Please model this.
Amino acid sequence: MYDKTVRRRRAVLGLLVASSLILLTAYFGESGGGALHGVQRGTSEVLNPVQEGASRALKPVRDLFGWFGATLDAKGKVEKLTADRNQLRSQLAQHEDALYENARMAKLLQTDGAYDLALYGAKTGRVTFQSPTIWYATIRVDIGAGDGVEVGQPVINESALIGHVSAVLGGAAQVTLLTDTSSSVAARAGKTGIFGEVESAGAGDPNDLLLKYSAPGARLNVGDHVVTRGTVSNGDRYPDLYPRGLPIGVITRIDHQGTDTQQVHLRPYANMQNLDFVQVLTKPQGAGGP
Amino acid sequence: MIAPTPKLVSRLVALVIVGVIVQTAAVSQLPIAGAHADLSPLMVMSVGLLCGSLAGGCFGFGVGLFVDLVSMQTLGVSSLVLLTVGYGAGRLREARDPEGTFVPLATGAAATLAFSVLFAIMQFLLGADAPVSWALLRQTLATLVINALIALPVYAIVRRWLLRALPEDPRRRRRRAYTTGGLSPLSRS
Model:
């Protein structure tokens, strides 16, 4: 009797391990439109309304936890923010002057120098899901194919670029964040406009990104701002996924500066751990784009 | 080994669905010290401790598959890892039958650690381009601590949910006999 039980247990265990390995192999082997991906999308489609409802129902609990966290966090930031405010006040005066000049230059060049989100068909969505593991930096929003959302479209929040749409369902879309190890964005940094690729610095750190493939001798400094590089001209056959000039983050550290192994670290402007509402740019090439 | 009755199976299926939805819709969106709790290994550990290795393994496989489906992650990774966690917790019950209030706490921490390490190994084997950074270790450690702290309530909730579907536990029956005025073996002698 005991032997029979042990044999049965081992057989079931072996079957489950084999099933997992078969699933894993088949999933890796098929394309994005394969059967298993289809089952995954179908399940997500069915469960999306339930998740959305649960997300809304549990929002007060999240807010309560968020309030405690924000209060503790805010207390520690008062002094620094006061100093920042004073500095920003002086910068504001300079920027207003620069804005005036910029508007004049824009008129001269017959271009619209303003950054207008409506031009990019921004659609606002609520975050209903966040990946449970640190290995996948993904979220899900409650707008999907029905709202004009397509794979590859950029996603921003009130602060900056946060990622791109990686899968679309009927009423929802999966967004891969900048901090995911599979994410990569063409970027421009500093006052001299150094080009590079912004990628994750590694799984598990939502506050650290790397600016890769910039020239070793590039003149970058801590505090330089990093924005999307975007399409350089209208004649490009393969336009960048991201429009030009979307803010990404600020350079916080440069390791081995000036050498071939130079590593430029930046902190994203957006708080990837506290995303509530985001906007998908459904016309990333602007109103005249595809 | 506990025989899988329809009542037990239906309760386990409900637990998978509710647990994973609560995890993805709420718990994953509550950062505590830069990390968040992960209910999956705790639920699987609880079922393994309460129902044994076979049920623990099957439940782990089910939770993992559902997590991968809902999260649109690589299918099979979480199921393989959680299957191991559930089987391990079940074997612990069958081989040692540990008693004590803090057993779920220690087992929950061990289950979370095993889950994190095995999941990381799977990711590296699948070619994830992620260095073993201090941030990753800090997040893993923070999740471990948070999970250890909530292991007892999660175990209590799972136990309460499954209790009516589980066959009578001889140890529990014996305890109840003492507390409700039944004769203890000592008083009988």
Remarks:
- The mean pLDDT of chain B is 83.
- The radius of gyration of chain B is 18 Å.
- The CA atoms of residues 134 and 140 of chain B lie 10 Å apart.
